UniProtKB/TrEMBL annotation:
Record has rRNA-binding as a keyword: no
Statement: the UniProt record of this protein carries the keyword ATP-binding: yes
Signal peptide positions (record): none
InterPro entries noted in UniProt: AAA+_ATPase, ABC_transporter-like_ATP-bd, ABC_transporter-like_CS, BCAA_Transport_ATP-bd_LivF, P-loop_NTPase
GO molecular function terms noted in the UniProt entry: ATP binding; ATP hydrolysis activity; branched-chain amino acid transmembrane transporter activity
GO biological-process terms attached to the record: L-amino acid transport
SMART domains cross-referenced by the UniProt entry: AAA (SM00382)
Family of this protein: Belongs to the ABC transporter superfamily.
Protein's UniProt name: Amino acid/amide ABC transporter ATP-binding protein 2 (HAAT family)
Residues passing through the membrane, by range: none
Length: 244
């Protein structure tokens, strides 16, 4: 058997404190290159803190975060982004007073105006998310929740990314928009993008996930194949308190 390639992203023994609170208690997590990894767990398990620690928004107090073999634990967030990492937070981070076009332009570092944005890439994004094209010149704050989520993901991928991290991409979305988001993530994966998603919608997780890590009380308590977890109701009940 050939050796498994090293993961694109690897957390080893990561602890994170926020003020006086010890949130992460030694997180070990491997995100294989070119796959979709789901991070599941009950509310308050430490999932969002894990994502924010990866991005350097909160500092690990112990342990390491490695991207493609490079230690990024102490790098500032902008430098982590320059390594080809995009992050869509749970609140989406949309600039409400700016148009959809202006939101994407902010993330296109090589462009000073919309005419300098990569037209082929924009057309690809419009194919993934038709609402982005439809509301191109509308204030982003006027869009629905699902449309804002599409804009947030589109902004994250307006430049090529090696790793896309999204916190609860399906939260509050209508079923038809969830299907659209699933297809978009499938296309990104097919194009070689590695994805790490925090998700509460278990249908979404089962459809997309290659691998899964389940968190509880600031630790990863289970890691394996998503298909194996989806097939084992007893394991789902013990880890998540519910069944897929």
């Amino acid at each position: 058997m050939s050796a498994q390639p090293p993961p694109l992203l690897e957390l080893s023994g990561v602890h994170t404190h926020i003020g006086a609170y010890h949130i992460l208690h030694g997180v070990d997590l491997a995100v294989p290159r070119g796959q979709v990894t789901l991070l599941l767990g009950r509310n308050g398990a430490g999932k969002t803190t894990t994502l924010r620690t990866i991005m350097g928004l909160w500092r690990a107090s112990q342990g390491s975060v490695r991207l493609a073999g490079q230690d990024i634990t102490r790098l500032p967030t902008p430098q982590i982004a320059l390594q080809g990492v995009a992050y869509v937070p749970e609140n989406m981070g949309i600039f409400a007073d700016l148009t959809v076009r202006e939101n994407l332009l902010l993330a296109a570092r090589g462009a000073r105006h919309a005419g300098q944005m990569d037209e082929a890439r924009l057309q690809w994004i419009f194919g993934l998310f038709p609402a982005v094209e439809k509301f191109w010149n509308h204030p982003a704050g006027k869009l629905s929740g699902g449309q804002k989520q599409m804009v947030a993901v589109a902004r994250a991928i307006v430049e090529p990314r090696e790793l896309l991290i999204v916190d609860e991409p399906s939260k509050g979305l209508a079923p038809a928009i969830i299907e659209n988001m699933i297809r978009a993530f499938e296309q990104l994966k097919a194009g070689g993008v590695t994805l790490l998603l925090v998700e509460q919608n278990l249908h979404f997780a089962r459809r997309l996930g290659d691998g899964v890590a389940v968190m509880d009380n600031g630790r990863v308590v289970h890691a394996g194949r998503m298909a194996a977890l989806a097939a084992d109701e007893a394991l789902q009940q013990s880890l998540l308190g519910l069944a897929l």
